Amino acid sequence: MTPRFSLPNLRFRLRLPQSRSGQIALALAVVYLVWGSTYLAVHVALESFPPLLLSGLRNLFAGIGLFVLAVRRRPSMPTLLEVRNAGIVGTMLVGLSSGLLALGMRSVGTGTAAVMVATVPLFATVIAAVAGRQIAKGEWVAVGLGLFGIVVLNHGDASPSSTLGTIVILGGALFWAGGAHLAGRLALPSDLFLSTALQIGLGGAMSTIVAWVVGERLLAIEFWPVVSFLYLMLVGTMLAYIAYGFLIRHTSPIIASSCMYVNPVVAVALGALILGEPVTRWTVIATCVILASVALSFWFDRRKAG
C-alpha cells in the first residue's frame, strides 16, 4: 500500500520535485549532507550534554514535534501492532544506534566515527544472510574488505579509549542496519510522517529513560552546544529522518543506507576544516578501503536486482 504521506505534501512553502526520481534524489541529498554534518554537531553538543541524554532528548523532542504535525494532518490512526513495531524499529535506529554513536564519540574523532558508521551496508549484508538471503561470494569479499579497512583505520592508535570507542560505534552501526532491515519487513503505520514520528519519539524516550537511570545529567549549558542540539533536533533528526523513511519505503535498505557512502567524506572535511582534526595517511587509506567495500556491496546489490 502506498503511504498517504509523500514528500510533495511536506511543502514548507518550497517547491519540491513532483517526480518519484526527483523526490528520491532530494531525499538522498538531505541524508548525505545533513547526516554528514551531524558528527560535527554531536562533537560540539557533547561539551554540555552527556551522550545518551543528548541522543534521547534530541529524538524525544523531535518525535513529539513530528507527532503533533502528523496528527494535524488527520492521518489514519495506527494499530497497536504498528505502534509496537514502530517502537522496536525506533529503539534500534534511534535509541541504540544514535546513543552508542554519541557514546563512542567521546573518545573517537568525527571523521573516524563517520567512517566507522559507513560499515552499515556491510552489516546489512550479514543480516540479510542470517535472514536467509543468498549472498554472493563477491558480497562476502566486500564485507572482508570493510573489516580490513577498520583495522587500517585504527593502525597506530591502540589506546584503550579509542579501541573501546570504536567497538561502541560499530555496535551502533550494527543496530542501525538491523533497524533498517526490520523497517522494510514489519508492519508500520501507513502514513510516513506519523510512522517516523513514532519511531523517533519512542526510540528517544527509551534512550532518555536509560540515560536518567544510569545517572546522566546536563552539564554546564553553553551557547554553541545548545545551538548544535537544536540543529540535531530540527534538521539532523526531524528533516533527515523523514527523508530516510521515504527512502526506506521506496528503495532497498542497502540503497537507503547509501548515505554512509558519502557521510564520511562530509564529516572528515568538516572535522579537518572546523575542528582541525588531523587527516593522516592511514585515515585516507582506510576511508578509501571502506568506501570501496561499500561501493562493491552496492554494485552486487544492484546486479542482483537486475
Provide keyphrases for this structure:
mainly alpha; 12 helices; 306 residues; 74% helix; globular; AA-Vitamin_Transporters; transmembrane; disordered N terminus
What does this structure look like?
It is a single chain. The chain is mainly alpha-helical and 306 residues long. The chain has one domain (21-304). 74% of the residues lie in helices and 0% in strands. The chain has helices at 20-45, 51-72, 80-104, 110-117, 120-130, 137-153, 160-183, 192-213, 223-250, 253-256, 259-274, 281-304. The two termini are 23 Å apart. The relative contact order is 0.22. The model is unreliable at 1-12 (pLDDT under 50). One of its GO terms (cellular component) is membrane. Residues 26-154, 164-298 form the EamA domain.
Question: In a few lines, what is going on in this structure?
Answer:
The chain has 306 residues and is mainly alpha-helical.
Percent helix, as a range, is: over 70%
Q: Supply the number of helical segments.
A: 12
Number of domains: 1
Strand content bin:
under 5%
The mean pLDDT is 83
Distance from N terminus to C terminus (CA atoms, Å) equals 23 Å
The radius of gyration computed from the alpha-carbon positions, rounded to a whole number of angstroms, is 18 Å
Structural class: mainly alpha
Low-confidence stretches: 1-12
Q: How would you sum up the global shape?
A: globular
- Give a count of the beta strands, DSSP E runs of length 2 or more: 0
Helix-strand topology string: HHHHHHHHHHHH
What's the main sheet like?
A: none
